[in-house]
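Per reviewer request, we include the raw input and output of the structure prediction for the construct analysed in the revised manuscript.
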Amino acid sequence: MWTLIRYEMRKTMQIKIISVSLIAIFEFLLLFGSTSGNIAVMGLAGVFLFFFSFVAFLLFGLSSMASLSKDLSTNQGYMLFMLPKPSYTFLLAKILESLLSTFCLSLLLYFLFLFDIFFFSVDVAGFMDVFKMVWGLTMESRLGDFIHFMISIALIYAGFWLYMSCLAVLCVTVQASFFRGKILAFLISIIVFLFLAVNIVEWCATLSEKIVDLVGLDSQMNSPLQILFLTLVSLLCFGLSAYILEKKRNY
């Protein structure tokens, strides 16, 4: 599995290197404009940095899905799918690579923006105050609560991204398997993906609320039920994608 993940990383490495390089250039221009007093350069660099950080996040996440579409719609994936491995391993490798790449980019952007916040807004005394606060939490054994909170946020992010990835994989697989070569098929699959991505979350939320009201459960059970339904939807999308890829492809 790790070999397949590394292979996917190499296939999408070019767009990721370009994205990170552009972020680094915008960050350099932002710092250069600040130190040189050039407000115009600083303002433009800040706007482009913020905008392209969002774009890069999408590119990192969707690059594996674009790679899957290319594998299935062209002969690029012929040798890959000829390997003596079940189809679901290739799909799982793409999903895990997407999750890992976006998580690494999220960490990079988090520390980059944290640095910018301190650089432009907080003086040394303010930084020392923050350091003393964190140290105080450590001494009072309250840092564990903060770590638990951050882990919870990371798990929610990972779960939601896996749901989005599984749904995207299903849309790409259906499009490439049944509508290969059809005009506007890929564009329609993107529209269908966006429609389902938003509405399935809404449907799960509505269903969980109705179950909570019908059974008389505590309102705090609403969120766990939504997570359960999204997990089931993710597994269903992944299973259908693997089945279609295994039974309907000619590789």
